[in-house]
Amino acid sequence: MTETALPRVLCVDDEPNVLAAMERNLFDEFDVVVALSGEAGLEAVSRGEHFAVIMSDMRMPGMDGATFLSKVREVSPDSVRVLLTGQADLESSIAAINKGAIFRYLCKPCPKQELVSALNDAVSQHRLICAEKELLATTLTASVKTLTEVLAMVAPWAFQRSAFAQSGVLHALPKLGWPDEWIYTIAASLSQIGCVGVPADIIQADVAQRKLSQDEKKLIQEHPDVAGRLVERIPRLGLVAEIIRHQAKAASPGAPIEVIRGAHLLRATLELERHAARGRSLERPWEILRAVQPAIPEDIIKALADFRANVAGVRTAHFSELMPGWVVDEDILTTNGLMVLSKGHELTDTAISALQRLLAANAVKEPIQVRGLPDTAASS
């Protein structure tokens, strides 16, 4: 086993002798990577290398430190940003703090002890950020899954729509390479929770493009705001709530980058869902999305270009064959007509056990239609 890896720090400065001095002074406590310009620093980050701390000189030709760190914030938001400069004037300090959300502002020349202390504080901050992200990506995601299962029982049609949206988001995210993927998947999962108070017949009429009364239109138009108000009450889900609010429209240019991106992606997946719900083909999703207004960014259209083109075939399965991760392709009802699982529900161990118990009590019938099977099962 190797020793614990040193915290990785990216140092950006246009003076080679300064970078050489940093490497000498920091090598025994940090894994130091250097870059001679903001452009070179961005290239290092874009290669996928993860840095706990990114430290930049303020005054550099071309891209200054404030601009560089603001761009870094977009592509590597978990990296803690430190500005090191000889220009200790108020104006540059304010610009750097506002544009790059700087953790620490240090003046050159900076004594080694002070520099090492600041970097250690930055590494500690990075660990806190990562620990919080882990909490959000596990505990909070599990809680959201419980909420969506409740949605599946209370409003199956709304669950089907959010399940489709989540499927599209999960398909697109690996291609988009955005950080904090949990934000976008949770937004898709909870996007239709505001529909709980909308009668199913109104939703069905909207999908079928039948004429609605003004009151009915208002219920449809307001459900994103209703969902946003519900979700914003959950700690740490402020950005998710804003994405949900903008699921039918583009976010304002001044909104956080996560909201702008997430709103576009959610709107795109829901547009495809509406198209599919009306019985139309999804063979060429890029044509559907390029006709949407306001316009959806091209990178999102490309990420969804092959969405659902290679979905595994539907087959019948008995309850003893079911496995977690498979998706129900029909509404499952009890023998007296009560909803058990709606079409689009992803099977879990709990759901499978419940179905098997109901079957033993002769309360449901098998086989059922499922999809999303592994190739080996699908071909059996």
Provide key terms for this protein:
Rossmann fold, disordered C terminus, 10% strand, 3 domains, Molybdopterin biosynthesis moea protein, domain 2, alpha/beta, 380 residues, five-stranded parallel sheet, single chain, Hypothetical protein af1432, three-stranded antiparallel sheet
Q: Would you kindly provide a written description of the structure presented here, covering whatever features stand out?
A:
The structure is a single chain. With 380 residues, this protein is α/β, with parallel strands linked by helices. The protein folds into three domains: 8-129, 3-Layer(aba) Sandwich (Rossmann fold), CATH 3.40.50; 155-310, Hypothetical protein af1432, CATH 1.10.3210.10; 312-380, Molybdopterin biosynthesis moea protein, domain 2. 52% of the residues lie in helices and 10% in strands. It contains 15 helices and ten strands. It has helices spanning 16-26, 38-46, 65-75, 90-100, 112-154, 156-176, 181-189, 200-207, 214-231, 238-245, 257-277, 285-290, 298-303, 349-360, 375-378; strands at residues 8-12, 31-35, 53-57, 80-85, 104-107, 315-317, 327-328, 332-333, 339-341, 368-371. The strands form three sheets. A five-stranded parallel sheet has the order 2-1-3-4-5, sandwiched between helices. Strands 6-10-7 form a three-stranded antiparallel sheet, with no helix packed on it. Helix 2 runs parallel beside helix 3, helix 6 (156-176) packs antiparallel against helix 7 and helix 6 (156-176) crosses helix 11. The protein is elongated. The model is unreliable at 373-380 (pLDDT under 50).
